[in-house]
Design goal:
Blueprint: E1 7-10, E2 29-32, H1 53-64, H2 72-108, H3 115-123, H4 125-143, H5 145-154, H6 164-183, H7 186-211, H8 230-240, H9 257-286, H10 298-307, H11 309-343, H12 361-374, H13 379-407, H14 421-440, H15 444-469, H16 484-489
Antiparallel strand pairs: 1-2
Helix pairs in contact: 1-7, 1-9, 1-11, 2-8, 2-9, 2-14, 3-4, 3-13, 4-11, 4-12, 4-13, 4-15, 5-11, 6-11, 6-12, 7-9, 7-11, 8-13, 10-11, 11-12, 13-14, 13-15
């Protein structure tokens, strides 16, 4: 580890910590004593430009959502009323707390590695590594879904993609092409996400205007609590409204993250919730209900009923493009997480190597390999497995958030949720209860596989430490990063 570093705040005016509303910031820069500020992340490598707010909003949008594609199962599972209520209420239980915590912690630790660094700072390197392992594996499992969904939306027009060798080759070709896009640079990925997002959302705006004369409000009120598939319902809501913290692993690549990240999270939250609720509102209100038909891809049929074949093709193309956007953004987060862990000395240093475009080459290849290995799983198996692992990772994040509030209440937080210690605990209670419900509803198969994966992580971290001790692999810590273990153990290394 690097030597102990003392830190102070470089700012105008008094050295007083204040709470800030989401979207605002406390413009603080941390520099070592007798050291000039040094750039980190992409801006320190080959003069690669950092992400600005608009690409960042759409990267968050694709990390979490990508549009209403995939929410159809909520109607099949619970009917229109509970589906609409779910996408209005669930964000307040889960998305808002997760986004707020990401804004506070992401600006407190604006570096690649994100939530791994948060947990390491609060709980030590072992649990930091477990956080990294579970969240990376969860992300790779999640990313294995998008080539499958991409082909599911195209197979109605190209039946050969339904199964067999053509489907396998299509998954392979798509994964290789999108992996190459990640290699070319995060800025390219960000602006591609903007274009894909606009293209994917416009047909639903058009559909909304066309559907107005056909809407029958009574259709929204249909509910039968005796035939609700709660497991499918909650997993669909959870899968479509989580991963707000994933953007934290790109914090080191963002232009002025202490200001940009909270604003981007706020705007993305509005975009995501609107992008789910209004398409569901018009789809369930303008089309006669056949619950069994509300499954993956059904929005293309809704588009045909409301606007005709041309709108159906646009929705199908938008869904395909959306899955491309989700794939490249998820892969960016997964690969930069590995880079951040390597810069912290948690995994071998070759994961920290960057291409001439500033991207983590080996991290991208490693994540792409995991996607190919897992792409044979079914949609619902993928969703359930990644939700299970993601839940454990979120529990560690909540513990880290509260622990840092308790141990270092006066440490500078460029964005701070305007609540005290008790408020920070209460903020984590509703999502923690939801996590317990999701875990309890998991199938035995998913539970067994996920627990095995977790225990594999428990063994992997000591093995890597042993490999480091034996010098089988080279580990190193990036020189311009603060010593989080020292910060964790010695609060006097922070100047309040």
């Amino acid at each position: 580890m690097i030597p102990s570093i003392s830190w102070f705040k470089l700012r105008d005016g008094a050295n007083k910590q204040s709470s800030t509303a989401m979207g605002q910031h406390d413009d603080v820069q941390y520099v070592g004593i007798n050291e000039p500020p040094s750039p980190t992340g992409a801006t320190a490598h080959n003069n690669v430009k950092g992400l600005s707010i608009i690409p960042l909003i759409f990267l968050i949008f694709y990390e979490v959502s990508g549009g209403p594609f995939g929410v159809e199962d909520s109607v099949q599972a619970a009917g229109p009323l509970l589906a609409l209520i779910g996408f209005l209420v669930f964000p307040f239980i889960w998305s808002v707390p997760e986004a707020l915590i990401t804004a506070e912690m992401g600006t407190m630790f604006p570096e690649d590695g994100g939530y791994v660094v948060w947990v390491s700072s609060a709980l030590g390197p072992f649990w930091g590594f477990q956080q990294g392992w579970m969240k990376w594996l969860s992300g790779v499992i999640d990313n294995a879904l998008y080539p499958v969904l991409f082909l599911d939306y195209l197979k109605s027009g190209i039946p050969a993609l339904a199964d067999g060798y053509p489907r396998v080759l299509a998954v392979l070709a798509l994964t290789v092409a999108l992996t190459y896009m990640n290699f070319r640079g995060l800025t390219i990925v960000g602006w591609v996400a903007v274009l894909l997002g606009i293209f994917s959302l416009i047909p639903f705006v058009i559909m909304g205007f066309i559907s107005i004369p056909k809407i029958e409000p009574a259709r929204w009120l249909v509910v039968d609590l005796h035939v609700v598939d709660w497991n499918l319902y909650l997993n669909t809501l959870f899968w479509n409204l989580n991963y707000w913290d994933s953007i934290s692993t790109l914090a080191g690549e963002v232009d002025n993250p202490k200001k940009t990240l909270p604003k981007a999270l706020l705007y993305a939250l509005i975009l995501v919730v609107s992008g789910y609720f209004f398409p569901l509102l018009m789809g369930t209100g303008a089309v006669p209900l056949h619950r069994d038909e509300w499954t993956d891809g059904y929005f293309s049929d809704v588009a045909k009923i409301i606007g005709g074949v041309w709108l159906r093709w646009w929705v199908q193309a938008g869904a395909a493009m959306s899955n491309m956007g989700m794939f490249v953004t998820e892969m960016s987060s997964d690969s930069f997480q590995l880079l951040g862990m390597a810069e912290r000395g948690m995994i071998p240093e070759f994961f920290a190597k960057r291409s001439r475009h500033g991207t983590p080459t080996l991290g991208i290849l490693f994540s792409a390999s995991g996607v190919l290995l897992l792409s044979w799983l079914s949609f619902q198996e993928i969703v359930a497995a990644e939700n299970f692992l993601y839940c454990f990772g979120m529990i560690l994040e909540f513990i880290a958030f509260v622990r840092l509030r308790m141990k270092h209440p006066a440490a500078s937080r460029p964005y701070k949720i305007p609540v005290g210690t008790v408020g920070s605990i209460l903020l984590c209670v509703p999502p923690t209860i939801l996590i317990c419900v999701v875990l309890a509803l998991s199938s035995l198969k998913v539970m067994i596989v996920s627990v095995i994966a977790i225990f594999f992580g428990f063994a992997l971290q000591p093995f890597l430490k042993f490999a480091e001790k034996k010098r089988w692999l080279k580990f190193s810590t990036k020189a311009d990063l603060p010593d989080l273990l020292n910060t964790h153990e010695h609060s006097e290394s922070l100047v309040y």
